[in-house]
Specification:
Helices cover 41% and strands 19% of the residues. The strands form 3 sheets. The protein has a 7-stranded mixed β-sheet with strand order 7-6-8-9-10-14-15. Helix 3 packs parallel to helix 4. It starts with 8 loop residues before the first helix and ends in a 9-residue tail after the last helix.
């Protein structure tokens, strides 16, 4: 996905007609294309296992859509016949930088919609800016529930479920598999994602493991990289379970440092969103680790025509199977395509305005490679979706970590109902949860 700009359509067309007095194809105009800002980590510790797979997943989907090569119901070229023109931005650099980048995408690059953002701190920073500018923003990731639980937005959507389902689902999985947890320790990054994940996990444990005792409770900085002190504390505590929502380079570093010191043999590791580090870690990932992927993604995804297309196509191009970040950007793009074409069906086939697109996206449902996505929370602006959990088992023949003992949970089993804050729902006994 190359970052390129266009001269104004009328100028380009006039120049072409004057300069070349023969039949030619008119330059792409605003009505012929849909300019999409895409933001993901292209550098920094979150890039290799998260940001780059997201970019690669987005590139695959956009290329396929522009060729009209995706399976039904996504087989129409681009977005309603409009070619998708991506402008890709690096998310690395912090929230202040991302606020300026967002403004640039809307005001300098004139994108129709911005889609992206992985870091929870970045999402919390950019959402009010999109609202201020009255421009549509589709958050593809960022797990903190706070986005819509602390504010109300008209121009902002999140097409992935927030992290509450990671932790509710993880506790349900542990209970279903009879995991002993009389004692618990936790290590999470000291910012919105880590703090919120820890709060949800501990609250959910309080419901299904009411007698569990919290021991070490650690919050290293994002990007710390070195965890010797924390690992010493976790080994010393010797808890039945060590829970973590670490991700990206931080999670890789933690596993590589904790395994030689025997932590995985002393305590059951439970990692809420860890599938993305399996390809780079390989046989360094301890067998029997319980992991989630913030969805039914990757090796835990279920067979369907859309998933077969995405999984196999991504793998053929990139030489590795897609993990959660690739799945989440795919479902965001397919959701946006669904909304664009829904709006066009209603307005007579014209490129939709921002208001028309917002109306189409609100409360939308669509099929993704990871299952059914439903915009059911935050007045139709926040998605819910199913999730899966499993255990790791290294496969020496395939030279990869396989996932075994997989269990799926319906979206309505692990997500709060509309109008209820996540932490209140969990502490209230998860009333209304619909589990198989």
């Amino acid at each position: 996905m190359d970052h390129f700009r266009r001269i104004p359509c009328s100028v380009a067309l006039l120049t072409a007609i004057i300069a070349i007095p023969i039949a030619l194809t008119a330059p792409a105009c605003a009505e012929d294309s849909f300019k999409l800002g895409v933001v993901t980590f292209l550098s920094g510790p979150a890039a290799d296992s998260f940001g780059i797979p997201a970019r690669n997943g987005g590139q695959f989907v956009i290329d396929e859509l522009n060729k009209g090569s995706a399976p039904a119901p996504y087989d129409k070229v681009g977005f309603g016949g409009m070619k998708i023109e991506p402008v890709v931005i690096d998310e690395n650099g912090g929230a202040t930088k991302q606020v300026q980048e967002l403004r640039n995408l809307y005001e300098r690059d004139n994108v129709d919609v911005v889609l992206g953002f992985i870091g929870s701190g970045d999402c919390l920073a950019v959402a009010p800016i999109a609202e201020e500018l009255k421009k549509m923003l589709v958050l593809m990731d960022c797990g903190t529930p706070r986005i819509f639980e602390e504010a109300k937005y008209n121009y902002v959507f999140r097409t992935a479920a927030h992290a509450t389902m990671d932790n509710v689902g993880l506790i349900r999985y542990m209970k279903a598999k009879n995991i002993k947890m009389d004692t618990l320790s936790a290590i999470n990054q000291d910012y919105a994602w880590g703090q919120d994940s820890r709060a949800d996990f501990i609250a959910a444990a309080g419901q299904l493991y009411p007698d569990a005792k919290l021991q070490a409770n650690l919050l290293p900085k994002f990007g710390a990289g070195q965890y010797g002190t924390e690992i010493s504390a976790l080994v010393s505590a010797g808890s039945d379970v060590v829970y973590s929502s670490l991700w990206g380079g931080d999670l890789q570093a933690f596993i590589l440092q904790a395994t030689p010191r025997g932590l995985p043999k002393r305590s059951q590791l439970v990692l809420s969103a860890a599938d993305h580090v399996l390809p780079p870690l390989g046989d360094k990932m301890p067998d029997g680790t319980i992991i989630g992927a913030r969805g039914a993604y990757g090796l835990m995804s279920q067979k369907s025509p859309v998933n077969d297309w995405f999984f196999k196509g991504y793998q053929n191009i990139n030489g590795v199977y897609p993990v959660q970040a690739a799945y989440r950007i795919a479902q965001s793009i397919l959701g946006l395509k669904t909304a664009v074409e829904k709006a066009m069906a209603k307005n007579g086939g014209k490129k939709p305005s921002t208001d028309e697109l917002i109306a189409a996206m609100t409360g939308l449902e669509w099929q993704s490679p990871g299952g059914l996505i439903q915009m059911k929370l935050a007045d139709g602006h926040q998605a819910i979706q199913p999730i899966a959990f499993s255990r790791t088992k290294y496969n020496p023949d395939l030279r990869r970590v396989d996932l075994v003992d997989i269990q799926y949970f319906a979206a309505e089993c692990v997500n709060p109902p509309a109008g209820v804050k996540s932490i209140d729902w969990i502490k209230g006994g998860m009333t209304g949860a619909k589990c198989n």
